[in-house]
Amino acid sequence: MHYNFCRVHKTLRITQAMEAGLTDHVWTVAGADWLDCQINNPGHLLKGKPFSRGDTGVYSHKISRRPKTLQERNEGFIYDDETLEKLERSISTERLFPYLQLAENNRFYAIALYEWNTRVSEALYSIIQGLEVALRNSIHEVLTDAYARPDWYEVAPLLEDQRRQIDQAKGRIQEDGRDVTPGRVVAELMFGFWTSLAGTYYAQSLWDKHLYKASTAGGFGRKLVAKRLKKIRLLRNRVAHHESIIARLNNERNLKQDTQEIFEALGWICRTTARWVAHNSSFDYHYSMRPTDPNAQPRLST
């Protein structure tokens, strides 16, 4: 009961019960014990006082201590004209412009779309994160074996741009007061570094000799991989820089297809990991919650 109603899921940012639509807020431990009593011990209702563990009273809670609803706590967010004007100023008119276009200059609806874009971006980033971590670790493993040393980046035939990124990664590690190790360098390098290794320059020196092994599925050419990773990197950058990723006016973006392509690319590396990331993803749920009614209030904050 505590896991479903009280524990906030790190990826979903809400509890499992909220995700399932069973409640609209995070429950207290007392509230969860009260509900647990109703479900598991319906016979132990003594004078209106339920007991969560038999009738000993050790974990007893009065019904009056049930969690308050969102309305009872009066924590709703009011979207009046003054609030919308302040939000537009904070977001900036330029950044809000694509949403205003979609909303036909309805500022209230534009803010609702902006909020939805944020929720979808959070869900999408967790999928991209799964790919990014798997990609860098797979490449690191392959090149460690190829050069028989974990700091393969010291001897691999890399371009000056990639050398610079490695030096910057080392600098950030040292600034944090940590020792420079291969594992830390690999973790510190940006997604763009890893996607660049599938580029044309490295076709013969790295891909044909070693990096094709990074795909356990096999059978995928460098050009296909490079094209797919570039597309994902551009989308990732929009998410990371808080840009709009939803459909623009007269230019629909198929985010469902984007996610499928990310899962497919992750499957090239490890199908099990792809299924695991998909299993834990909240993207489909948040994507389905796109606001469509300009007169509907945006989702209340909790």
Secondary-structure topology with pairs:
Elements: H1 2-5, H2 16-19, H3 29-40, E1 45-46, E2 49-50, H4 70-73, H5 81-91, H6 93-102, H7 107-147, H8 160-175, H9 182-188, H10 191-196, H11 203-207, H12 222-240, H13 255-269, H14 271-280, H15 283-288
Antiparallel strand pairs: 1-2
Helix pairs in contact: 6-7, 7-12, 7-13, 7-14, 8-9, 12-13, 13-14
Describe the 3D structure.
The protein has helices at 2-5, 16-19, 29-40, 70-73, 81-91, 93-102, 107-147, 160-175, 182-188, 191-196, 203-207, 222-240, 255-269, 271-280, 283-288, and strands spanning 45-46, 49-50. It has 302 residues and is an all-alpha fold. It folds into 2 domains: 2-73, no CATH class; 83-288, no CATH class. A hairpin with a 2-residue loop joins strand 1 (45-46) and strand 2 (49-50). 26% of the residues are buried. Mean pLDDT is 80; it is low at 37-74.
Quick check: average pLDDT? Answer: 80
Total beta-strand segments? 2
Main beta sheet strand tally, sense and closure: 2 strands, antiparallel
How are helices and strands ordered from N to C? HHHEEHHHHHHHHHHHH
Query: Oligomer, anyone?
Result: single chain
The secondary structure category is mainly alpha
Q: Give the strand order of the largest sheet, numbering strands 1, 2, ... along the chain.
A: 1-2
**Total count of domains:** 2
C-alpha geometry: elongated
Uncertain spans, ≥5 residues at pLDDT below 50? Answer: 37-74
Distance between the termini: 20 Å
How much beta, percentage-wise?
A: under 5%
